[in-house]
Each structure stands twice: as C-alpha cells, then as structure tokens.
Amino acid sequence: AQKITQTQPGMFVQEKEAVTLDCTYDTSDQSYGLFWYKQPSSGEMIFLIYQGSYDEQNATEGRYSLNFQKARKSANLVISASQLGDSAMYFCAMTDQAGTALIFGKGTTLSVSS
Amino acid sequence: IAGITQAPTSQILAAGRRMTLRCTQDMRHNAMYWYRQDLGLGLRLIHYSNTAGTTGKGEVPDGYSVSRANTDDFPLTLASAVPSQTSVYFCASGESGDTGELFFGEGSRLTVL
Which of A20, A50, A53, B10 is spaced 20 to 30 A from A27 at the CA atom? Predict the structure, then answer.
C-alpha cells in the first residue's frame, strides 16, 4: 500500500534562506503523482506543486521546486528565499493505488523568522 | 468564485447526536472526497466518490456515511457522534486520475462532547 513519510515535525529557517522539506514515499506502482500542499494558520489547504512519476524534469513553481529522486523514492520540497508568509504546515501527498484519492503525510511545520 | 463550500464552519455537538456536514462544489468535478485532519496524523481519507451515484470507503470510514445524488453535493453524515470524531473535516474535489490536484473547502471544525 502507498505510504508517505515526512520525518521533520518542525523546521526553522531565517528569512531569505532556502529550506528543504523532506518527503519519502512507498509504492509499487509505476504511475503516480506527487503533490505538496501548504496549510497556513488560517486553515485552508493551498496546492503548491505537482510531479508526475514519468516527468524527467523536476517541477518548479516560482520559489517552489520539487527535488524528485525516483530511485530513492523521495520528493523533497525546496523553498528558495524563504519569506515570513511561508510559515505554515506543509503536506506531501501522493495518489493512492487506485488513482482515486490522495494519501497525505503527517506534515511538517515550517517557521520562518526575521 | 465559490469553489467548494462547506457548512457549518464550526459546530459543537453532544455525543450520540446525528450530524451532517454539507459540501457543495461549483467546478463540475467528477470526484469528491472527505478527509479528517487530526494533530500529528495529517489528513486521512474518510470516503470518496468518483462520480455521481458512486461512493467508496477510505482509510477511516467507520461511523461515517456519504451520498452523492448529484455532481455538486457530497454530504458527510455522522449517525451517532462520538468524542473521537472531534476533528477538522475537509471536503475536496478534483478530476479523477493521478494528474489532478485536489481543491479543498475551508474545513468544518467539529467538537463532540
């Protein structure tokens, strides 16, 4: 069965620094999707970035990039030039075996200080 | 632009009471989902529906039921609430398949006493 592991309960970074949030996954499927969502303290879930298992290039969206290492089954989120507004909970997710829903990790809380 | 609307946003409920959380989307997505979010556990799938008229069980379906009479609405019912169902509930929608992001409602915070 699919599983997402986020080993960092909390991360601390200073403004303008880059930060990497770790995500490893377990699947026997060849075709799957990997996602990152942001949840600020207000509670809404915000989609950040997507990587397909067959995509050869790492996905990028502005300051967000996904460091996809298929052989290692990792999909780390890299945030460049952190901002105070990046302080939030971040969830890694992947499509389930049937491709019908997303399975989420337990999340990493990122705190950005000035 | 509404997207996904959940109601109520917050509710305190006595144990044993019946409760329905409402979810409506205006994006004409085929698939809809209910997740619960608990501290330290992330989001866990309760039930899902790939298309109107069909539903399926997720990781934690016990104590919950859903229906999907049409494309837009996907209510979640707790037939007899228990304190362990205290949680934040998120409804989401998307296109089926592994390339689609999910769009989330703002959540419903439920407290069962």
Answer: A20
